[in-house]
Design brief:
Elements: H1 2-74, E1 78-80, H2 85-91, E2 96-99, E3 102-109, E4 118-124, H3 127-131, E5 137-142, H4 147-159
Antiparallel strand pairs: 1-2, 2-3, 3-4, 4-5
Amino acid sequence: MKKALKILGIIVAVAAIAYVVCEIIQFIIQYKKTKDGLEETASKQIFSKKKKRKEIVEETLNNNIKLFEESMVAHGAKLMEEFDEENRDKFELRPIYEYKGNYFRMGFLVFDEGEDPYIIVNAIDNEKFAKIGIMEEIEAYPYDMTAERINEVVGEFLETEL
């Protein structure tokens, strides 16, 4: 009978150990699922924030390029619709403007991947080259300037000789 009780005790001990091991394994599995779920949620939130920021940057950039062009016209620049029509359409370039014999085109450029874009002003003082879209001077400005600063900058570069 003692032998039977010892065997029964061993069986109970092994069963208890097996139960504890199963519980630990279940805990680890649940922890991993929770951790993976949290990581996935965090990753989605980061992606969403990056996407939203990218949309805001693009909207601000496009708006401010238009403000640059509107300010140029307000300062007396003239839109040269017939200049560089083919390349403008082909390469989705902005139109060219003329002011006192100088020619300007707005655009944007990202200097380093992952960095914010810059609004660029291409310029040339040669009408022949401007007609075919060749520009030689470039000025770069932060994409997120205020409307007031854009107006100041446009006034400054329109009056500067190339």
